[in-house]
């Protein structure tokens, strides 16, 4: 059985919307698109590239699929990432799409939880990148095995959050952490059962 890994770029206040460019995702009047670029450095890009290289399959929501499909087949930079994304099996959750033009793309049919289980049976590391609405569904159905989070020293105040309403309570185990020259921190977590509770109140 493989693992479903949510890999996301987020601000310190949890915003995941539009990291790549000003026009990437304007939904809700979002005006901060492209916030990641000034905070990238060679070291963090190297780790991002390495992690994408470990991916066996990619699970995407419709909006992120459209963004990726328009960019990566024509990309002239980050060729190692482009080659991996272009050639990897891609599974797309969409109610509106009927055809998928990007190489090795399959439209998910049927119940998402069952399809995710089937995809995990066939592939080792199944990555989710971006795909905010899909991630909320995966969290509500407790389908995420690992989180790969790049947290950036930035507060935006508005935008789509990674952990929205409906996220199920869960304990997490930190498996690695690394800080980068421009202030980003990479945090990797695995699931660790239910949250534990204690009592720090002062007893009389």
Walk me through this protein's architecture:
It is a single chain. By secondary structure, the chain is an alpha/beta fold. It has helices spanning 42-53, 62-71, 79-87, 112-122, 132-140; strands spanning 3-11, 57-61, 90-93, 105-107, 125-129, 146-152, 172-179, 185-191. Strands 4-3-2-5-1-6-8-7 form an eight-stranded mixed sheet. It contains five helices and eight strands; from the N terminus they run βαβααββαβαβββ. The longest helix is centred in the first third of the chain and has 12 residues, at 42-53. Helices cover 25% and strands 24% of the residues. The chain starts with a strand and ends in a 13-residue tail after the last strand. The model has no long low-confidence stretch (mean pLDDT 93). It has a single domain, classed as Dihydrofolate Reductase, subunit A (3-Layer(aba) Sandwich), CATH 3.40.430.
Order of H and E elements: EHEHHEEHEHEEE
- The name of the CATH superfamily reads Dihydrofolate Reductase, subunit A
Tell me the Rg in angstroms. 17 Å
CATH topology: Dihydrofolate Reductase, subunit A
Task: Summarize the biggest pleated sheet.
Answer: 8 strands, mixed
- How far apart, in Å, are the first and last alpha carbons? 51 Å
By CATH, the architecture is named: 3-Layer(aba) Sandwich
Could you report the average pLDDT, rounded to the nearest whole number?
93
Strand content: 15-25%
